[in-house]
Amino acid sequence: MRLEGKVALISGGARGMGAVEARMFAREGAKVGIADIREDAGRELAAEIGAAGGEAMFVNLDVTDERQWLEAVDAVMTAYGRLDILVNNAGIYRRANVEETSGADWDRMLDINGKGVFLGARSVVPAMRAGGGGSIVNISSVAGLIGSAGATAYNASKGAVRLLTKSLAVQYAAENIRVNSVHPGPIETDMLDLVFPEEGMREQRAVNIPIPRMGSPEDVAYGVLFLASDESSYMTGGELVIDGGLTAT
Ligand code: NAP
Asked: What gap in Å lies between CA 90 and CA 123, rounded to an integer?
């Protein structure tokens, strides 16, 4: 198994891509902390993974709250004794151009999508250092690579994740803590209803993608698994683009 003996914490792990990663990580031998503001869904998923023979626990986490991060790391360390992997996956999306974005909208987006990743890294580093290293996988987006007409604060937040990743990678390489970012294109989760709110928008977008479909959460999870595992041991500060070729055009 590709994550045998490892312990992972996945923010926003109760549903969407995070939930698919939690299931996949558990199947590959990891013990998984599912961290989310959605307690019911998170507990159900942990039970489902347990029933399937894996190991998982739910921890309450609002990624904007440093105290909750420290409690989440403590809970995982107490239960499983180590922490090797953090997937900074929690995020929100809002379709709004610059004039439709209030200062409060901007703050909320940057707080969750940007500061949440910073606090996550800050909170797990001591545990990873104590265990001899680790892998932090930050979920950015193609919106962290290219601009779009109607996602001002989202673009800015995902761009911040891209460069924060490289900064952390440089800072922690010597301690065997690797940090990489993942840049998915449009992926079939509930978030996509916010990206393409009107009928026919997905189909219109898909025809302009070289692989002409939306991605699945599994398409992304396999990439996250690779970065989380020792298979990517010479990779840090990198960008894994999983977008059907969208940004290649
Ligand atoms: P999702 O289905 O909306 O799942 C995100 C999870 O994170 C939800 O359970 C959500 O709870 C939770 N969350 C939101 N705010 C949180 C907070 N402050 N603290 C802790 N958890 C919080 O989204 P997804 O599509 O799986 O997206 C996962 C990541 O991939 C995000 O960072 C997103 O920006 C990125 N991404 C998505 C796409 C896409 O097309 N889907 C493409 C590129 C990148 P609520 O449901 O209550 O908000």
From this structure: 15
Active site (annotated) includes residue 80: no
Contact 38, 14 (CB under 8 A): yes
Arithmetic mean of pLDDT, 41-55: 98
Q: Is 218 left (phi over 0), alpha (psi -120 to 50) or beta?
A: alpha
Order of strands, sheet of 177-184, starting from the edge strand that comes earlier in the sequence = 55-60, 31-36, 7-11, 85-88, 134-139, 177-184, 239-242
Say what the pLDDT of residue 244 is. 98
pLDDT, tens digit (0-9, with 9 covering 90-100), for 114-154: 999 999 999 999 999 999 999 999 999 999 999 999 999 99
Query: Ligand 1 within 6 A of 191 CB?
Result: yes
Q: Cα 70 to the chain's mean position, in Å?
A: 18
Q: Is the CB of 240 under 6 A from ligand 1?
A: no
pLDDT tens per residue across span 188-218: 999 999 999 999 999 999 999 999 999 999 9
Domains of the chain by start residue, with CATH: 7-242 (3.40.50.720)
**Catalytic member of 80, 154, 172, 234:** 154
Strand partners, 53: none
